[in-house]
Automatic annotation (TrEMBL):
MF (Gene Ontology): metal ion binding
Protein name, per record: Zinc/manganese transport system substrate-binding protein
Signal peptide interval: 1-20
Lineage: Bacteria, Pseudomonadati, Pseudomonadota, Gammaproteobacteria, Thiohalomonadales
Annotated organism of origin: Thiohalomonas denitrificans
GO biological process, one term: metal ion transport
Superkingdom of source: Bacteria
Alphabetical UniProt keywords: Signal
Gene3D superfamilies, A to Z: Nitrogenase molybdenum iron protein domain
Length: 297
């Protein structure tokens, strides 16, 4: 009797441990971290490599980054070569074969959805180009919903016991996006648009039917020139709009353009806050919608 009691306790302990299983996940950005939290919830332990006030194109590989990658079960990257300058080096130094590209422990968001501007020439004379297409898909809520579904499938492969929970959470996130979309569209109806610094928020604008009025960079990744700023002023003078730029870009050119054009200048990251989950990501899009609504006369 005592022996059966002990066996029963051990069985409960083992089953309880399986139920409480957590996956270690490293996300390259806070947008990817928000998806991981939205889909994985308490079944994942999360580390994020790039805070939203850093330019993810140009991170430096740090020892803490390598430690996180060495211990993780899954890397969730934006992909599309956006992290090409540092992530392959960090993964190589982590010596964790399970997270190499092509393995189940490596997931790229951009590989799950169609990309704009695919097939651009791989010529540095055109600036910071991405021949596979514009990788900044995280600013499109509908594509983020598709990525969440794909992420649920990947998490299910690594933790099959929680497959149903992952799938249901991804479906819940998609429903929340669908419910929010008409409100976003109504809020920015007839908004004249925005002047952006970089081509990093492009995927949001056609989704909301709002025009991008131009870019402060003459080509992606190159700083603005006086000639390019004059060209923008000549083209946009007399029109309505708003200037939006991320916090890690110099405010000098955006401020000059806003003052000359008589527009509002708004500093706004394309990434949600570091602690964001699915709802936090939607609140992030709310902030962008409010900024675009501010472009109305």
């Amino acid at each position: 009797m005592a022996r059966r009691w002990i066996v029963g306790l051990l069985t409960l302990f083992i089953l309880g441990g399986a139920h409480a299983q957590t996956l270690n996940v490293v996300a390259t950005s806070s947008s990817m971290g928000a998806l991981v939290r939205a889909v994985g919830a308490e079944q994942v332990g999360l580390r994020i490599l790039a805070p939203p006030d850093r330019d993810i194109h140009y991170l430096q590989v740090r020892p803490s980054m390598i430690r996180d990658l060495r211990r993780t079960d899954l890397v969730v990257a934006i992909g599309g070569e956006l992290e090409m300058g540092w992530l392959p080096v960090a993964i190589g130094q982590a010596a964790n074969p399970g997270i190499l590209p092509g393995r189940p422990g490596y997931f790229e968001a951009a590989a799950q959805v169609p990309l704009e501007d695919a097939g651009a020439p791989a010529d540095r004379a055109h600036g910071d180009v991405h021949p596979a297409g514009n990788p900044h898909v995280y600013m499109d809520p509908l594509r983020m919903a598709d990525i969440a579904e794909a992420l649920a499938g990947r998490l299910a492969k690594l933790a099959p016991a929680h497959a149903d929970s992952f799938r249901k959470r991804a479906e819940g996130f998609a429903r929340a996006v669908e419910e929010r979309l008409p409100k976003w569209e109504a809020a920015v109806a007839d908004a004249p648009g925005a002047l952006l610094y970089h081509k990093d928020a492009d995927s949001l604008f056609p989704r909301l039917v709002v025009p991008v009025l131009g870019y402060i960079e003459p080509v992606p990744g190159l700083p603005p020139t006086a000639r390019h700023i004059r060209t923008l002023v000549d083209r946009l003078s007399g029109r309505d709009g708003v200037v939006i730029h991320a916090p890690y870009y110099s405010s000098r050119a955006p401020q000059q353009l806003a003052q000359t054009l008589g527009w509002e200048r708004i500093t706004l990251s394309t990434e949600p806050p570091l602690e964001a989950d699915g709802e936090g990501y939607l609140a992030h899009i709310d902030r962008w919608v409010a900024a675009l609504a501010a472009s109305r006369p």
